[in-house]
Amino acid sequence: xxxxxxxxxxxxxxxxxxxxxxxxxxxxxxxxxxxxxxxxxxxxxxxxxxxxxxxxxxxxxxxxxxxxxxxxxxxxxxxxxxxxxxxxxxxxxxxxxxxxxxxxxxxxxxxxxxxxxxxxxxxxxxxxxxxxxxxxxxxxxxxxxxxxxxxxxxxxxxxxxxxxxxxxxxxxxxxxxxxxxxxxxxxxxxxxxxxxxxxxxxxxxxxxxxxxxxxxxxxxxxxxxxxxxxxxxxxxxxxxxxxxxxxxxxxxxxxxxxxxxxxxxxxxxxxxxxxxxxxxxxxxxxxxxxxxxxxxxxxxxxxxxxxxxxxxxxxxxxxxxxxxxxxxxxxxxxxxxxxxxxxxxxxxxxxxxxxxxxxxxxxxxxxxxxxxxxxxxxxxxxxxxxxxxxxxxxxxxxxxxxxxxxxxxxxxxxxxxxxxxxxxxxxxxxxxxxxxxxxxxxxxxxxxxxxxxxxxxxxxxxxxxxxxxxxxxxxxxxxxxxxxxxxxxxxxxxxxxxxxxxxxxxxxxxxxxxxxxxxxxxxxxxxxxxxxxxxxxxxxxxxxxxxxxxxxxxxxxxxxxxxxxxxxxxxx
Length: 572
Known about the structure:
The protein has helices at about 1-10, 15-20, 465-480, 485-495, 505-515, 520-530, 530-540, 545-560; strands at about 65-70, 75-80, 80-90, 95-105, 110-115, 125-135, 135-145, 150-160, 160-175, 175-185, 195-205, 230-235, 240-245, 255-270, 275, 280-290, 295-305, 305-310, 340-345, 350-355, 360-365, 370-375, 385-390, 395-400, 405, 410-415, 420-425, 435-445, 455-460. The protein has 4 domains: about 1-160, Quinohemoprotein amine dehydrogenase alpha subunit, domain 2 (Lipocalin), CATH 2.40.128.120; about 160-320, no CATH class; about 340-460, Immunoglobulins (Immunoglobulin-like, Sandwich), CATH 2.60.40; about 465-560, Leucine-rich Repeat Variant. The radius of gyration is 29 Å and the shape is globular. Helix content is about 15%, strand content about 35%.
């Protein structure tokens, strides 16, 4: 008993917890019974315990700052299923121990800490074999290099979160578009650890309902903009583009001024939305006025001190004599040339059923001897034009929105370098009838006179199969709710939102009720379907616990009541 009391009196921080939670089998009874303590040269040195190999994929994610029942502090990163990091122990505490490990299943992971060199009283290594018991806790066993074992628990203290949100670029593009780029870092210094977080914008417009651009001076046919507008991107990207443009114009022109207010925020799973300090209530001011009193009707936009203007259609230089240009000259844009860049498309499935998602794999190839830079547009797809010839004849040409908040599309390729991405053709075109289609995809450049690379392919749309649509929608809903990363969840939820079919309503409703950070896709999908069942699913979530989701649901219901023919497109 006296020996036990003597050991306790010399115990380092965390030993009280060891008495409560740790059991062990000692091969060297003189060693302190903590994972890091134990002579490196002790008899009974053993190999690391056998573990399951790393899982090829898993929903378990353990990046962040953890503490354990020995008061060790762990800083963990995770890429795929591989885990790296450091741990501060109570042995040789001046130097962190490097950590390597892996996720081995949807509930299990291991961590092995190796002595970086220090007192002989420290073990050569120790290993934790853990089972996740919640998003913030795990329990398991430890083994160290001299054969001593015991039990241990871990608690997530600080989950990875975005921080250091900064503006990295502000420039003017043609057609009076303000272009901003923003970046951020992770609290763990590795943005790959942010796979459970999203970055978002919230833009509020004047009035209490979806914002209808005043006409005149704006085109009355321009669809209303959702108020507020919410757009999210995966935080693992580390950066985002934000383009601010305008609706079309309609004569006779009249003066107008309105201000929208923009907030930049982030949200991680199991947490509430947080605003980036200093990045809220940003004014975006749009003005139309006659600058000379002689018909020099001009559009002016200003945000964060970046300001530009353009004459309205039909206004001549003579109308604006004695005026000065506003703002700096536009910066040159990237251009895409067929002599420099080639594109190729392939279909994962040559034939799909009516109302099913239609995917296409796009490859961009650099044909030049040197490096080439090109721009796929916002979210790596806004500069892709899609032309579709349908079974009934005629052609429709579509582009996606190039304004607003989204990922940068700027790509740099070395000689013979390639870039590949999977696109959802339903975003450009709704295939409303079975039959044969011809599709042409063109990579747009900055100037019309530049030859633009394009690719063409045939697509067969089969008859509607409700049972198969239900299976596809269920699989996408499962992925949207349980995927390992937010970006994977968003891709699945986006594809599900373009299944405009009654068979998808219950799956969209499930994503709206159970999803995290992807609920707005479910709202968009229910709006596209617009049936009484879809409206009921939206009404059921008017009191959703998340404020942003409640706003999106109420905006969607207002939109459906207004009976616009298409889903409104945000411009900020």
